[in-house]
Automatic annotation (TrEMBL):
Pfam family, one: SSF
InterPro entries: Na/Glc_symporter_sf, Na/solute_symporter
Main location: membrane
Compartments it resides in: Membrane
PROSITE patterns (alphabetical): NA_SOLUT_SYMP_3
The organism's taxonomic lineage, starting at the top: Bacteria, Pseudomonadati, Bacteroidota, Cytophagia, Cytophagales
Name of the protein described by the UniProt record: Sodium:solute symporter family protein
Family recorded in the similarity comment: Belongs to the sodium:solute symporter (SSF) (TC 2.A.21) family.
Source organism of this protein record: Shivajiella indica
């Protein structure tokens, strides 16, 4: 495709602004480690919320959605739509608890909640496991999306794409710290939204598509429009709807949708001005992430079924793309090659923004683990702020290098998504319960981590060769089910067979975080002088359900309006509005 000077000028301006933000925030970011990683704990909800959305607006997300829609239709998106339940639980139950903890990272939580060498081991191990290895896998999937975009739209080799995508990101992330990331995310979010919406509108006007009505009635598309899978086809119903809603959302750990909050979501909540801003940030994130963004991607994915019905059609159109990078997820980038001058520059800038916003967050988040939870905690407890910031900047560069190397070996965003789900299978319930059940200890988390990883390795690498457990090709969800079951049974047994944490540790945590007392009563019975926090957990769970209905209604209202189903559209819109009024009033009444 031809990229005009106007398009290059738009892209260049985007790079310059991103770099400028990093430079302007570098002095303050370098003043202390807390400023570099938490921006002084003084950030407003709207900036944090937009940053969360921008981070999950990764370039691999539209590729993932396209892959899903082409294979399983719109209803296939329940594999990630179900995580809204996790998100709303975080909003109304866990956001305030995280903010009260006042830790620097969510890994520091381990030595607040648990005690002794097991807690220290858990913190150190997960600092490397999550901050380096797991984080590198996530960034590699984002970099893979960049490789596919660069190859299809710019004709760049994988190495050339990675160099262009990573250099600017590393510079502003290492200079500006979290504040630089937040401000750049804010700028990048609006570019990304404009690019996605503009691309969807243009694609619908292509001669091959003709109009929205022509798209929806085309034989390649008409059977992929339903919001729910066919209830008579259990081979689709179970993996696409039942598993995500019944098990996946609470039982698995996935970046950005951690049960109980965690990772960069926790980092944003910890940097909020107060509890109210932490709740507002996560609320805005879940509304925008699940109801505002999916439809432009879905429209382009559906349109691609007309232009490129099969993967072989894309291989014919883009023969220079390496065979191992060909897949249904490539269709999103392929569709964007038809965009005109000017719009293609905006869309390319939006895709670059999507890549950079996600990478920058993961770089800052990962380096916070390396610095705060490993280097300072175990290697250099007396390190100065200047030294810690330097280590943070160096680790930022190294993480990006490792992610780029791994990206060259990956082939599919959906492949990586499924692997990450399998590795975290069965651990999610711990992250939900550890705030409310005094009996959970460090060995609970250590055992769950080991068991879930071992089960994932078994099903992904060993079982395909030895076939000890036969899993039919159309029942791949059984691997996740086995993982959740085995891991959950394992950590529950370990919890009950090992000693609980010392009372002093548990009471210190309880006094600081103030969780609802119902799961702490056996401990508190021994200390009648302790105030038992009644909390508002039933009301908070009620708000979680109201919030989930609100967002799903908004999501489907947009779909119904697009499909011209007027009555369902009106009903869904009214339900979303009523839910929104209830949620906003509840949020404003927070002290």
């Amino acid at each position: 495709m031809n990229i005009s000077m106007i398009d290059w000028a738009i892209i260049a301006a985007f790079f310059v602004i991103s770099m400028l933000i990093g430079v302007l925030t570098s002095r303050k970011a370098g003043s202390s480690a807390k400023e570099f990683f938490l921006s002084g704990r003084n950030m407003p909800w709207w900036l944090l919320g937009v940053s969360m959305v921008a981070t999950t607006f990764s370039a691999d997300t539209p590729n993932l959605v396209t892959d899903i829609v082409r294979k399983n239709g719109v209803s296939g998106n329940w594999v990630w739509w179900a995580f809204l339940l996790t998100g709303m639980l975080t909003v109304f139950v866990y956001a305030k608890l995280w903010r009260r903890s006042e830790v620097t990272t969510d890994l520091e939580f381990y030595e607040l909640r648990y005690g002794g060498k097991p807690a220290a081991f858990l913190r150190a191990f997960r600092a490397i496991y999550l901050g380096v290895f797991f984080n590198v896998v996530i960034m590699a999937t984002v970099s893979l999306a960049a490789i596919k975009i660069g190859g299809v739209m710019l004709g760049l080799s994988p190495v050339e794409t990675l160099l262009l995508a990573s250099v600017v990101t590393v510079i502003y992330s290492s200079l500006g710290g979290l504040k630089g990331v937040l401000l750049t995310d804010f700028f990048q979010f609006f570019i990304a939204m404009a690019g996605a919406i503009g691309a969807a509108i243009y694609v619908l006007e292509m001669p091959e598509i003709g109009s929205l009505n022509n798209l929806l009635t085309h034989p390649n598309v008409s059977d992929k429009l339903n919001f729910l899978p066919d209830f008579n086809d259990y081979n689709l119903l179970i993996p696409l709807l039942i598993m995500p809603l019944a098990i996946q959302w609470w039982a698995t750990w996935y970046p950005g949708a951690e049960p109980g909050g965690g990772g960069y979501i926790a980092q944003r909540m910890l940097s909020a001005k107060d509890e109210k801003n932490a709740i507002g940030a996560t609320l805005f994130f879940n509304i925008a992430h699940y109801s505002m963004r999916p439809w432009p991607w879905i429209i382009i994915a559906l349109s691609s079924l007309i232009i490129f019905p099969n993967v072989s059609d894309m291989q014919e159109a883009f023969p220079h793309i390496p065979v191992d990078k060909l897949g249904n997820d490539l269709a999103y980038s392929a569709m964007l090659t038809f965009l005109p001058t000017g719009l293609i520059g905006i869309v390319l800038a939006s895709l670059i923004a999507a890549v950079m916003s996600t990478l920058s967050t993961h770089l800052n988040w990962g380096s916070s683990y390396v610095v705060n939870d490993f280097y300072q905690r175990f290697l250099r407890p007396d390190a100065s702020d200047k030294e810690l910031v330097l280590v943070g900047r160096v680790s930022t560069v190294l993480l990006m290098v490792l992610a780029a190397i791994l990206a060259l070996a990956l082939s599919s965003a959906l492949e990586a998504f499924n692997i990450l789900l399998q590795i975290g299978a069965g651990t999610g319930a711990i992250f939900i319960l550890r705030w409310f059940w005094w009996r959970i200890n460090a060995y609970t988390e250590i055992s769950a981590m080991i068991i879930s990883f071992a089960v994932a390795i078994f099903f992904e690498s060993i079982n395909p060769k030895v076939q000890w457990i036969v899993i039919p090709e159309n029942q791949e969800y059984l691997k996740l089910l086995y993982g959740v079951g085995i891991t959950t049974v394992g950590w529950v047994l370990v919890t009950l067979l090992t000693q609980p944490e010392k009372d002093t540790i548990l009471l210190s945590f309880y006094r600081k975080v103030k969780p609802a007392a119902f799961g702490w009563k056996k401990l508190l019975y021994r200390y009648p002088q302790e105030h038992q926090e009644q909390g508002r957990l039933p009301q908070e769970i009620g708000l979680m359900l109201v919030g989930s209905v609100m967002v799903y209604s908004a999501l489907f209202a947009v779909g119904f309006w697009i499909y011209s189903n007027i009555l369902p559209a009106i009903i869904a819109s009214l339900v979303a509005i009523v839910g929104g009024v209830i949620i906003i009033k509840s949020w404003k009444n927070l002290k």
